[in-house]
Amino acid sequence: MLNNVGRQTRPEGAGGDTEMPETFTGNRALNLETPLIFEQGVPGRIGVDLPEPKKVKAKLGGLARKGRIGLPDLSEPQVLRHYVRLSRQNYSIDAGFYPLGSCTMKHNPRINEKAARMPGLGDIHPLQPESTVQGALALVYELAEWLKTITGMPAVAMSPAAGAHGELCGVMAMRAAHEARGEVRTRILVPESAHGTNPATAALCGYKVDSVPARADGRMDLEAFEAKLGPDVAGVMLTNPNTCGLFENDIRKIADLVHAAGGYFYCDGANFNAILGRTRPGDLGVDAMHINLHKTFSTPHGGGGPGSGPVVLSDALAPFAPVPYVVKDDNGYRLQEDVEGDAAQSFGRMKTFHGQMGMFIRALAYMLSHGADGLKQIAEDAVLNANYIRVGLKDVLHTPFDGVCMHEALFDDSTLKDTGVSTLDIAKAMIDEGYHPMTMYFPLVVHGAMLVEPTESETKETLDLFIGTMRHLVDKARTGNDPDFFKNAPRYSPRRRLDETGAARKPILRWAPEGTE
Fold first, then answer.
1. Of 3.50.50.60, 1.10.10.10, 3.90.1150.10, 3.40.50.720, which CATH number belongs to 378-505?
2. Is the pLDDT of residue 90 over 90?
3. Which of 38, 127, 369, 490 has its CA 20 to 30 A from that of 500?
4. Top-level CATH class of 111-367?
5. How many CB atoms lie within 10 A of CB 148?
């Protein structure tokens, strides 16, 4: 603690910003500083009285703890204030516009949260007898039916925990199908603009990743793709709309070509929000596609989880779907738990239990509240909002690909050339304006990329303010009248610009009291 000089408002060496004078406390009005919780502890201070535990014979042998556990001793108000203050430093979709591209940071309707917390659903346990959870099984079954209908696919695996886990499920089903045919295939084709988890998943499953270049219009090069096909190709992993926010117009041809070569078509469903209710992947020749319930269907996203990534499967891959899955028969609902009977060709189990129940509840509540017409409007409004931003900024920020985009608008840093201002500088200045920055430097195929996905949640007024803010920042960068403006941003955040490279290379992962190592 800095008892004599207070707490610094900015770190050492951050520059002398006369517009933001330091305060003695480190507080800035309602932006309250909080020390690490370990720094606040005082030995012997307690927030709750607990009875002395009964003495029992230790069963830990020589492993019993001899010293203090190292947790801070705090009063109840200290704990409460600490976490409330920390929460005020978080940016959230409830606080403002979240323009992160490729993340679909939409509003989460509170009725979904209320449904997920209903005692009959929120308090059940996965090891309860099936007879006592018939309602929960019915809910999972109904959600599966919605997903199959929306995608035009005959089967769905509900257990994958998130998008990357869903990719793993799809590629494992592809591998199982090849093995059932007695085939050994070693390559999977992946566009160069793919999400990083696509090649990682293929490699994890033992395949060699063969990258396919893009054309000048940002879409996969069909001729290069066709030239790479062969009897050793297990399939292709393609995102549609792709990572550049563009629809792969040759998708039906891509599917026909890979099928003719004996491979399968995995479609990354991370961007499904753009085509929801407008296009069914099953009609496009897709064999497997994960669906991020935590993105397209409004489960809270971005807080470290949990996610949910059900995988829809074609007729060719359905027999290899993982267990467990819900079956409806004359006796009600049951779980197919074992690799036998109708599941004899299943590649097995991906996780201990049956899926992410809270995510299922929220997703079904979202679907039922919108209905078929509402789900279609979601995609229409998401694409409209992205194009509104694209048109509103295209005269000040360069768009690397011509024409209408889908759910996200992509810009590059060519407009900032010779200004001394980078994509990162723009992002830091956005923090001072009250925005979480857009996705930066991704996709990697675009230099200095700025990827913006407004989703369908945002109003015209919100988008107009965002467009105005971005135009202001770009104009300020171009004029060059204040070279320190961007380099010193952010000024108003709880912490100023940090040495991110140093933090990554020499992270301090453990707190230690002052004067100790």
1. 3.90.1150.10
2. no
3. 38
4. alpha beta
5. 17
